[in-house]
Predict the structure.
Amino acid sequence: MQRPIRYGMASSDELPKNYDFAEVEERWQKSWRDEDHYFDPNSKKPQFVIDTPPPYPTGNFHIGNALNWCYIDFFARYKRMKGYNVMFPQGWDCHGLPTEVKVEELNHITKNDVSREKFRKMCRDLTIKNIEQMRLTLRRMAFSTDWSNEYITMMPKYYSKTQLSFLRMLKSGYIYQDEHPVNFCTRCETAIAFAEVSYEDRETQLNFFDFDGVEIATTRPELLAACVAVAVHPADDRYHNLKGKSLKVPLFGHAVPVVQDEAVDPKFGSGAVMICTFGDKQDVHWWKQHNLPLRKAIDRKGKMTEICGKYTGLSSTECRKAILADMKSAGILKKQEKLQQRVGTCWRCKTPIEILSNKQWFIRIRQQEIRDAAHQIKWYPEHMLLRMENWIDQMEWDWCISRQRIFATPIPVWTCTKCGEIVVPDEKDLPCDPTLTKPKQPCPKCGGNDFKGEEDVLDTWMDSSISVLNVTGWDGSGKPKIFPAQIRPQGHDIIRTWAFYSILRSVALTGSKPWDQILVNGMVLGEDGFKMSKSRGNVIVPEDLVGRYGADALRQWAATGAALGSDIMFSWNDVIAASRFQTKMWNIFRFALIQFGKDGIDENAPITALADRWLLARLSDTVAAVSARMENYEFDEALKAIREFAWDVLADNYIELAKGRLYASDVSRKSACRVLYTAYDSLCRMLAPFVPYFAEESYSYLKKGSVHKQPWVDFTFNDPAAKAEGDLLVKVVAEVRKYKHDKGLALNAPLGKVTVYAPHTTNDENDTARTINADVHWRTDKAHLDKVVSGIDFNRSVVGKTFRKDASAFMDAVKALSAEELAHPPKTIAVNGKDLPIPENAFAPQYSYVEEGAKVDMITVGDVIVTVAGKE
RNA sequence: GGGCUCGUGGUCUAGUUGGCUAUGACGUCGCCUUGACAUGGCGGAGGUCCUGAGUUCGAAUCUCAGCGGGCCCA
């Protein structure tokens, strides 16, 4: 049964004994209002705009997303409490191949079976369904999303901005069209960017063959038709005679020059390589360097072109086989060796990429510009900047932004069929699909009226790399008022893509860095330490976890799991520990509420007892520490400090000390209640960003109003003496407990007189006495103790081994020694009439102490002496 | 091959401007059902701080070399 929402001080009979997270979380989720999290454009508060990552709407919010969003929500909530006007937008990065593939799968079609428009609609419908699913999870997780700033990249409102940014960058010369080699996936039939290439190890064959008298080693004989040169190292003596010569390509017969290049490794293969357009990135290098011609041997579908003669139409694998067979029968194939190599593949479908030369759209990469902007951003953790720098430094090609797909932002250009002029739409006519509409004016160059709409579409990163411009309200007119954003949170896996492209685009379009700070979080690994994957069976689904332990427990796991930037192993242990902490907190609050229920709270009661001042001093330190950690996004440390204070300091020490006073009804009870009240209130507020449901529920028993609308805790209590003396108090209690434990006594067993000889007298309001159940006296004078030998500990393994049958006689002799002799034993001792040496470690005297005539036990706490008189 | 990052009890981890007996959690063992909580309390056992060399009165921490893991890239 669900309880009604209630606010304000509870009476103790209203208090449920157990914290039922499922009931509580559902109830609060229903009552919270979206409006409370809206960014207020007219606010006078300082702004805190977050450029959140728009997830790909697969329908499933995975645990890595959850970690990322928890971090965002922690600081979004914290900043709101600190008085900032926070924008926590939610975007959806819709376009791209996975959805196309999914639509084909679900409808049993290929994209060519239906019209482009129909296919797009199918993709849009699926995406909307997925987004709705994921929104539910976001709400269940209690993320304080600003739903008034939601954006969906496939919607006209968003992608018209993508198109606007394209037109602006085209105009300013950043974007150009060119025939250029690009990474190409022949399965997806599209160009892909370097960031989309992944690498796999595989074994291949290195083929040595006779190339017009020169031995050449190649892994890609099928590219023989595309051979445009042979390269050797200039210092390679074997090939001096080839300088300036040309060679005839076997099987094909065209002549190619021999070029010299330092980049050729004389030790690899035969030391002579053939340059083809294009086998790999190195070929592109050489091709540019030596101004070689272009011979295209492979087409977009991965088939051999006409220049391959009789091999035309074969796939590259078939062609390789055929050419090797023909080399063999011509007797020019010398030998074959196995070779380990890394091959670039399409990150989506794992097909090995080809480098093909096509007409494509590009964005110029101006490295220095990006580097400068990256340096103006504060990186958390700092070393992530290095990854960005390394990536920038080794960029060689411009960013290819055109894709040959359907579900994506159209490139808004037409080509005049008569003169080839590029024509663009008016900015006010965006969004625009050039395959469906025509330009309003004739061609400005030749006056022609026949145009071809661009069928290529934009890379998805072209959408998401303006997320920050979108949320800050960019409309093309320079730099928006609230730009740059304050922070970009993201994973380290997309530094070279999303972060890199966002910086590039912001600089190009506004001349400024996109954000003040970037916060980089790690990846979530499975419980076995490996990346989560279905095949490993180590995948954790957030919804499952939330169902079993609640959203707050998952959020705590995210906070405590890892330091910023480092990968985090998933651990059920941490989730269980989190849920236990909530139980503990609930019981602490229950205890406090029961006390408050007896005769209310006096918020101005004088703080009298030492323990009370001690607790407030420790609370003050905790608030300072937690606040500092929050400022630095060190959520693990922040939550750790809260837990430590609540569990160790408040529950295990303070409450144990103050219990007696709270049960009694003297004046100092009010002091303890006020302290409990302050701690309760502060803890709710410090916990609010981490466990919003739990904090809200707990706070509702204390006061009216939502804890999430309270300011962050501002509490200082400076009392170094109370801290030092209170620490002593706690230590004395701990030592006496240990003493009881060692004596086999129950912790509440009564003791007789306990005297503490400390440097200062301490007004502990009898807390110590009640806690350890003894008559406690605090004294500042020196302890007057008489040390008395009360017995002797024999080490029987030493005594027995040394004295054999004289052992008992030896022990009797030792017992007969005086106290003085026992403390400083002689070298020898008379046993059965003989003087025998006393072995080392044979015995140790036991001492007892006598204080004012009574026998006592002595405990030391640093230089403080505590005596305990038994209760006989 | 290059860059980044890391190596601490069985497991995960804190600690690096060099300095008390190396932190905590989980697990484990023992004791305790005391009026918030046994999803608790108290206590114990358990560590070559990856290896080696160096600097130093002193190294988990600094330097060098090596071994090993992870990530990114060639």
